[in-house]
Amino acid sequence: MRWKIAGALFGSLVLWELIVRLFVLSPAQEVFEPRLGYVHAPHAPILRTYEGYARFALDQFGLNNDVLPATLPEKRVFVVGDSFVEAYQVMRTENFVSRLDEVWRDSLLFNAGSSGAAPDKSLAVYELLKSSVRPTHVLLCVNASDLYELSLAKTKRNADGGVQHLWRKQDAPTALTPLKLWIYGHSSLVTHLKWKYENDIRAWLTGKNGKMESRQSHQLSGKRLQRAVEYWQFVLQSFQQEGGSLTVLMMPEVEYFSGQVAKAKVRQGRVILTDEAVKLGIPVLDSNSLFVQNFQKTGEPAIGFANTHYGKGHINAYGHQLLANWLGAQRSVILR
Amino acid sequence: MIFSSIDFVIFFAALLLALWLAPKRLHSWVLLAFSYGFYAVWDVRFLLLLAFVSFVGHGCGLAIERNHQQQKNKNRALWLGIVSMLLVLAYFKYANFFIDNAAVLLGISSEHLNIVLPVGLSFFTFQVMSYLVDVWRGDIRACASKKEFFLYVAFFPQLVAGPIVRAKDFLPQLQQHVGVNWDYIYLGGQIFTLGFIQKVFIADRLAMFCDPVFSSPSLYDATTLWLGLLAYAVQIFCDFSGYSHMAIGIALVLGFKLPENFRMPYLATSIADFWRRWHISLSSWLRDYLYISLGGSRVAPNKVYMNLMITMLLGGLWHGASWNFVLWGAMHGVALCLHRVWKQAGCELPSLLGWALTFLFVLLTWVPFRCADFDQSMIYFSGLLSGRGIHWVMPQVIGLLALVGLVHGVMACRQQQIGAWHVLLPVSGKEKILHIVAWFWLVMALLVWSPTNSSPFIYFQF
Hints:
The complex is a heterodimer of chains A (336) and B (462).
Chain A: H1 2-23, E1 30-33, E2 37-40, E3 45-48, E4 54-57, E5 75-80, H2 83-86, H3 96-103, E6 107-111, H4 119-133, E7 137-142, H5 145-151, E8 154-157, E9 163-167, H6 178-186, H7 188-206, H8 210-214, H9 222-241, E10 245-250, E11 254-257, E12 261-264, H10 268-279, E13 284-286, H11 288-298, H12 317-328, H13 331-334
Parallel strand pairs in A: 5-6, 5-7, 7-10, 10-13
Antiparallel strand pairs in A: 1-2, 3-4, 8-9, 11-12
Chain B: H1 6-21, H2 27-42, H3 47-66, H4 71-106, H5 121-137, H6 146-154, H7 156-159, H8 167-175, H9 182-215, H10 222-253, H11 271-277, H12 280-291, H13 301-318, H14 323-344, H15 351-370, H16 374-386, H17 395-413, H18 430-449
Helix pairs in contact in B: 1-2, 2-6, 3-4, 3-5, 3-6, 4-5, 9-10, 10-15, 10-16, 10-17, 12-13, 13-14, 14-15, 15-16
């Protein structure tokens, strides 16, 4: 009897693994990269259904692109930023980078977005991939909270006190044992349960709610503000020194309410990031008003999903199309 | 502390341990202490109120019985108890409502009193009132033991959101209490799980859709509003029925039987049938202690309709101090009157048509029940007819509604009812494997698909 029960339960577990793998989430196939920490493994399959729906395989760098061809076109735009660029909420063909790539036939649009990437990490991603992609142009996508995120970066300074290098404390390469890496990489069920309950169990055990702490105010002042501005200048200058033309894209931070009222957040970070880029002569494209005005005109929310809530969260397929159309009209700025 | 939280699991484990360690004669004390502890977690200040309500109920009950030969004194004791309960309710629940409306009538400005509504107030005051009336009518004897009466009022599984338990059902169980045993744990555990699934797996998931739709109805198109309304109908049923099942299950684990509160209400074929199936402990309370006290149906026809309207208006107001609830009660009152007229004319509807009309009507009455105020209810109603805006159809909501619809459909075809006592019984042999696997699938489904944060039960606010 015991063996029968054990067999039935094991069979059920296998079926649940299959259900989660088919309908909920792909396993987390990750590898350790010294500058970036744990990142997606090359060619890893992605299925995300928490917010929107996405299913595709990553490229040879573990990013949301088709595999990079051996011969590259003359113009290569390196689009880098956080999860808004990564776009794991929509199918690949629907995100704004792919849409632009489709329209600008003479150029390659390379999606280097990775979840949670502040500008210092975007710089690290660029430095890591520049020899492979050989970008001629960079579209650096940022949002207001990036100023706060920058203030958390670590720095190595020159003899004259200037910033030589920005870095973030990563998990040790051994943070995940080979066994854990194998389990997460092969079991959607374990990955799903870990993502879902890890924070709650930790909060319950320690009394500290990580989610709540991360939602603290992003207002900076004093030395911390100075430091964040200095780091932002360093990131911009580093991109400029690479020789390619740099454009900053402020991502939308809009929420939609009833009666076609859209609220664009005006935050300290948005103003300062824009001002500092303009001071260095870098063009800044701000998509906020685009998202507000379009909603007022059409009533169609460009943010949020049917399986979460329209009006909040990441950019949906309609929003990506809107953004791509708008950026398409800015071609002369981005490909200058 | 809600039943679907880790805190409650710890609390309940501690209670079971205490009951296991304590001699049987101390079980009532242990239950009373834990019940007061449970209430103190909400707000320790209101323990005094709970004790006061119990004290008055106990004293008045004894006074009614002592004066059973002297009608005048007996009546005085009854009214003292009833008025005390009504005053407590009026102050904590309705004071600001009265002030607001008086100010509107007089055309003056008003300021709100800073009053916190004690959780479960409407439930435990109604229990005390039913006890006093039962003693006054001679249906039961007054409870001599303070400890037992205090436990009757404060028994934690039903303290904050019912079911409203009658003293004649509960007090005898204290005297014949068998304690905790494995059969009750097994059966109670299953009933609790049924409630847990309703709450966490269905109600909480539907809330993610209903909350934004009801908070901004003008934003969405008619299809979304209809879907939101349907989802809310299922949400409130699964939320409250889930809570009732959890309460019944917990009580059974502790060795007490609580009454059923729901009998597949959305299968009702008339509005009167609906009220025999929905929130049974409240509807039967209103029938026995308000409608019958007003004369019930043994008075002139016009007076019967008035009694029905008064009962339903007060039933609506019981849910909260808002004109929305009055409107909800009025809609049900009118429907009950119309149903009575129809029935007395000897007319009969085919049961399928009767079901469809009843369901549609009940569905529409949830609009004022759920909307924040009267204006929003009107926006919602007009949106149902001609709403233009976002078309939001959440696939998970459709799936859950289909699942609940399927369960109802199967039950309707088999003419069965899912009630607290219609659950699996202990099994042996080959069926055991099937049961274990079924439970395993249930736990996995909860782990994989349940939302991580459980919201409070809707009926806690009443």
